[in-house]
């Protein structure tokens, strides 16, 4: 495929799914995701799959969505430092983070409400106005099937990027079948151990 102009990539991260990736890596004692390396890998993967020169592919926006504890709750759970450390990694890679407070469940625990809807609405709206050539969804949620369909109606190449290091089956088959391209990082790292080392940070 020959392109004379640069092509834009919008990356949208489902924070709950991203946390599952890190949990899976940690269970296998493989560290955590290296955000910078992951964002360097995305244009390389698209170049390889779609036959576009890597130098013409640019991530122009990155967004991260997650429910978050209020400050007092985070302090009680000793999460403030780790949250700030993770936000530093997002900031350093120009990723915009979007948070909604977790709500207390009357039956116990907390619930994340409205984040998936916010994720979908923002992704669609930004794609409509920014006219991304590629949208990368880092998610595994079946609820995003209709988002993928709507993005394709905008003539956007929709890429699902998943990573299930622990083999928990956390990726929806419905979503995988709806997108234009599915990049399964676990399959790629199983074939290339150097890629796994590159995309992870060793535990401290």
Notable characteristics:
single chain; 204 residues; alpha/beta; Rossmann fold; six-stranded parallel β-sheet; two-stranded antiparallel sheet; 9 helices; 46% helix; 25% strand
In short:
This protein is an alpha/beta fold and 204 residues long. It contains nine helices and ten strands.
Structure in words:
By secondary structure, the chain is an alpha/beta fold. The chain has a single domain, classed as 5'-nuclease (Rossmann fold, 3-Layer(aba) Sandwich), CATH 3.40.50.1010. 46% of the residues lie in helices and 25% in strands. The chain contains 9 helices and 10 strands. It has helices at residues 15-27, 35-50, 71-76, 80-92, 115-130, 145-153, 173-178, 185-191, 193-199, and strands spanning 7-14, 32-33, 57-68, 95-101, 103-104, 110-111, 134-138, 157-162, 181-184, 200-201. The protein has a 6-stranded parallel β-sheet. Helix 7 links the parallel strand 8 and strand 9 (181-184). Helix 8 (185-191) packs across helix 9 (193-199). The radius of gyration is 17 Å and the shape is globular. The N and C termini lie far apart (43 Å). The relative contact order is 0.20. The mean pLDDT is 91.
